[in-house]
């Protein structure tokens, strides 16, 4: 006899929400983050053929991961309702997870309730807890916290360092904080002033929440498209005319190597993490209306948009610009379009400031999304996976401050975070491409039935292979980075 699971104890439709375009803007701002700045460097150093093929693979894999998250959320909704009835969700042992149930065995009673995504927030850390138990859920949340906080520290550093080096404070000169020695110097306090300005805005935007910054996120999406388009167009012009980007010299138009094994340890995580945004999906999903129709469209459109721009940036910029810096937009600090530097046209200054300053402004939209996503995971851990509008506002504000203040403090103490982020960025491999396929497999083992969000092209054993492969990729990247650092 089928067990009739009662309707969810929360509203299935939030009073207001995002349509396709607003959801698309937020998703693009998650996918196309600061990662696009380093992709040209990855193509130049890791090899254009390897990076192109790996990016094509990661784009396809990213689409699969997004649809996996949708299916997981629908099936976990059923598990949550079972728990609301006072019943326990059985834990999967290794044999059952890999090989499935025996004939006639039923872990979860058959329900007449279709797996369905509601407005209930089901963050990945809560999914990990429901599927694999308390210990795994805590471990996943700890790794997620370290990973997200590291990203937010880098955003704070990017903003403050970029403005200190490009925008003068009144009559004071600009400076490069990396060239000054000591904890306190003539440049550090300028860096701190911009960090204070940045922190004030980030606290405000994070506390306001995603639904209160639709216009801002939409504007930042337009700016992303503008900056990437300017870099692509100017690169095509440089290649066609053999011009240097920052002088009237001729440029050597040369393709990067096909593959450079010695730099793969840096190139792999850049390409991989640039396409990984699935940890932000639950936060966006909560606000999207008509989920059955819009979610797939949003995931497909945002991922393919990112791939199109990323591919063009990776293939063109290393050819157009010699010795691309790791933050590729820095090669536009003295943009000349092939003219003499002291006699360049007025419009080159406009391009220079748009391309150079935007990465600093870009983190204005990325930082609050990352902070809200992490705060949502902490709120879910504390209050349970109920909609945000059912949670105490004071508690939500507390957790948002808990994730927005520490990165600002760390950025105040330390701005040179390249080495730290190179290693903490590896955690993203474990959180997304390694963990999500196993979550998808576990959700299918526990909950039968079909829904509009199901992705049926990934057999169970492929989920295992993908997860194990990315664990080995993370280990390989660590080994390659160690070998490169010892040379």
Summarize this, please?
The chain is mostly helical.
Describe the structure.
The protein is 64% helix and 0% strand. The chain is mostly helical and 487 residues long. It has a single domain (24-485), classed as Amino acid/polyamine transporter I (Up-down Bundle). Helix 1 (20-31) packs across helix 8 and helix 5 (124-132) packs across helix 15. The longest helix has 38 residues, at 346-383. The N and C termini lie far apart (67 Å). The model is unreliable at 1-15 (pLDDT under 50).
| Annotated CATH homologous superfamily | Amino acid/polyamine transporter I
- What Rg is obtained from the alpha carbons, in whole angstroms? 23 Å
In the CATH hierarchy, the third-tier topology is known as Amino acid/polyamine transporter I
The unreliable regions are 1-15
Strand content: under 5%
Order of helices and strands: HHHHHHHHHHHHHHHH
CATH architecture designation: Up-down Bundle
Overall pLDDT confidence: 81
Structural class: mainly alpha
Q: Please report the first level of CATH classification, the CATH class.
A: Mainly Alpha
Strand runs, count: 0
> What is the rounded distance between the termini?
67 Å
Helix content: 55-70%
Q: Count the domains.
A: 1
Question: What oligomeric state best describes the polypeptide chains here?
Answer: single chain
Number of helices: 16
Gross morphology: globular
**For the report, how would you describe the main beta sheet?**
none
Organism: Blepharisma stoltei
Transmembrane segments: 21-41, 47-65, 191-207, 214-237, 257-277, 298-321, 346-364, 398-417, 423-443, 455-483
Pfam families: Aa_trans (PF01490)
Domain Amino acid transporter transmembrane: 19-72, 119-478
């Amino acid at each position: 006899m089928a067990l009739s699971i009662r309707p969810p104890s929360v509203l299935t439709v939030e009073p207001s929400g995002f349509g396709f375009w607003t959801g698309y803007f937020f998703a693009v701002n998650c996918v196309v983050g600061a990662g696009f700045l380093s992709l040209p460097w990855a193509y130049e150093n890791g090899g254009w053929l390897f990076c192109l093929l790996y990016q094509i693979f990661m784009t396809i894999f990213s689409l699969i991961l997004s649809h996996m998250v949708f299916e997981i959320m629908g099936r976990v909704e059923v598990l949550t309702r079972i728990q609301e009835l006072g019943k326990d969700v059985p834990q999967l042992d290794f044999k059952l997870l890999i090989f499935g149930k025996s004939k006639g065995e039923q872990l979860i009673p058959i329900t007449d309730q279709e797996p369905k995504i509601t407005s209930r927030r089901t963050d990945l850390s809560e999914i990990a807890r429901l599927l694999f138990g308390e210990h795994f859920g805590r471990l996943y949340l700890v790794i997620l916290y370290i990973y997200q906080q590291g990203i937010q520290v880098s955003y704070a550093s990017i903003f403050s360092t970029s403005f200190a080096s490009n925008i003068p404070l009144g009559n004071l000169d600009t400076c490069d904080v990396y060239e000054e020695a000591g904890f306190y110097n003539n440049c550090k306090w300028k860096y701190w002033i911009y960090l204070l300005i940045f922190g004030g805005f980030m606290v405000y935007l994070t506390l306001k929440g995603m639904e209160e910054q639709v216009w801002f996120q939409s504007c930042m999406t337009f700016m992303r498209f503008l900056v990437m388009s300017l870099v692509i167009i100017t690169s095509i012009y440089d290649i066609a005319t053999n011009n240097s980007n920052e002088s009237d010299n001729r440029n050597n138009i040369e393709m990067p190597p096909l593959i450079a094994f010695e730099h793969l340890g840096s190139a792999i995580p850049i390409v991989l993490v640039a396409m990984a945004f699935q940890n932000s999906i639950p936060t966006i999903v909560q606000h999207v209306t008509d989920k059955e129709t819009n979610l797939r469209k949003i995931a497909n459109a945002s991922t393919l948009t990112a791939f199109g721009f990323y591919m063009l940036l990776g293939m063109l910029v290393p050819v157009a610009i010699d010795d691309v810096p790791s933050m590729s937009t820095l090669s536009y600090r003295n943009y000349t379009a092939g003219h003499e530097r002291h006699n360049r046209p007025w419009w080159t200054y406009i391009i220079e400031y748009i391309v150079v300053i935007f990465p600093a402004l870009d983190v204005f939209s990325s930082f609050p999304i990352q902070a809200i996503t992490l705060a949502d995971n902490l709120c879910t851990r504390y209050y349970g996976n109920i909609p945000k509008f059912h949670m105490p506002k004071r508690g939500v504000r507390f957790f948002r401050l808990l994730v927005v203040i520490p990165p600002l403090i760390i950025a105040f103490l330390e701005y040179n975070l390249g080495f730290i982020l190179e290693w903490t960025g590896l955690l993203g491999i474990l959180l997304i491409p390694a963990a999500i396929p196993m979550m998808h497999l576990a959700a299918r083992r526990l909950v039968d039935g079909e829904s509009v969000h199901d992705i049926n092209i990934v057999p169970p054993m492929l989920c295992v292979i993908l997860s194990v492969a990315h664990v080995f990729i993370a280990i390989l990247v660590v080994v390659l980075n160690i070998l490169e650092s010892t040379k």
